[in-house]
Amino acid sequence: MDRRDTVLERLGVVRSSFLIESLSDTLSGFDIRSSCGCEYPLWKKQMRIYPGHPDTIVILSSIKSFSGYWQKQTTITAENCTTIFYTGPWIIIK
């Protein structure tokens, strides 16, 4: 299902939270990279995710002065796995 939300540009920053959970191995040694400089990931340095004990990564999207279609990706790599999180898709209006 293609779901698009409408977001007002005057909000300035949209906060997206992602819950990370390990189903088998402990995750550590995180490297988190956004697809552009308009997104900023927040996480605890030296974070470790133990099986059965999830934690949260927050991605701040700076939408100020932007208009149109928005979908960005953030790649999260731990010692033993990689995954991609997407913010959006949003239609940003002024």
Quick one: biggest sheet?
A: 4 strands, mixed
Helix percent reads under 10%
Radius of gyration over C-alpha positions, nearest whole angstrom: 15 Å
The average pLDDT is 87
The counted number of beta strands is: 7
Question: Which strand order does the major sheet show?
Answer: 1-7-6-3
**Which overall shape is indicated by the principal axes computed on the Cα atoms?**
elongated
Q: How much beta, percentage-wise?
A: over 45%
Low-confidence stretches: none
Number of helical regions: 0
The span between the termini is 26 Å
- Briefly note the structural class of the backbone: mainly beta
- Helix-strand string: EEEEEEE
Q: What would your notes on this structure say?
A:
With 94 residues, this protein is an all-beta fold. It is 0% helix and 55% strand. It contains no helices and seven strands. It has strands at 5-8, 13-20, 31-34, 39-42, 55-62, 68-78, 81-93. The chain has a four-stranded mixed beta sheet, with no helix packed on it. It has a three-stranded antiparallel beta sheet with strand order 2-5-4, with no helix packed on it. The protein is elongated and about 45 Å long. The two termini are 26 Å apart. The mean pLDDT is 87.
